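haha ok so turns out i had the wrong file open the whole time. this is the CORRECT one, sorry everyone. sequence first:
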Amino acid sequence: MIDLHVHSAASDGTMKPDELVKYASEKNLHAIALTDHDTISGLKDALAAAGECGIRVIPGIEMSCLYHGTEIHILGYFINPADASFLDDMEFFRKSRDERNEIVLDNLAEDGILLSRQELTFGNPDAVITRAHFARLLTEKGYTRSMAEAFKKYLTYGGKYCPRKKGITPEHVMSLFRKHNIWASLAHPYQYGFSRSELEDLIRDLRNLGLRGLEAWHSSHHLSETDRLLSLTRVFELIPTGGTDFHGSNKPDIDIGTGFGGMNIPDSVLEKVEEDYKAMTGSL
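then structure:
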């Protein structure tokens, strides 16, 4: 079994990349994709641990962008972590996230909620700060009783404290992926609250930009939603992908490989992704 959507402490997971890989190995997974938010800083340690544990790690990323006023996430697979030009191109996205985080800190401070950037890293100065870091710190400092309450009260996209990141569009993300031969799949399509026609428009628009996959299996999806997404992969000639969106103790009910307990994604899913990636890059 495999899991093509997991996060480490390099973004908003709670396990270090090497710990995450070892944990996946203990769970007898054949392969995982490390898909931290807007960063590949955890890939080096994850890939090193994979060699020791006998498990495959697909180098990945999860990129955020704004589509018609709604933040969406696009998964990228088969990144070359040694590609210096990719790291240079990522600087634009890092700056956008840092600017949004500074605004969140300022907005919270105006209402007497004092958090520091250093506290938000939780001891990992290289971590990409996400809303989950804010939620965890708000809870630990007693401003909220749970991370769920923190998201609802303070961290709603477009709310009083948490504006949407500006300037990053699907065109930006997909252009980056095309430039660096990164295979793209739309993450958790039902989390965006789109109607059926709006979701189809999103998939069509992304397909025209080079989208290759659709995350049909996800911890948040009901069986009927997975069936619908599998149908859409056939309509739009896309490859289905799947993953739990594991974050460690930041999402304690979701375990790697099995999600809430019932997910089992076979390695044949990864085989189809790899076959399409080879066709995309001409390496068949």
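The mean pLDDT is 94.
again sry for the mixup
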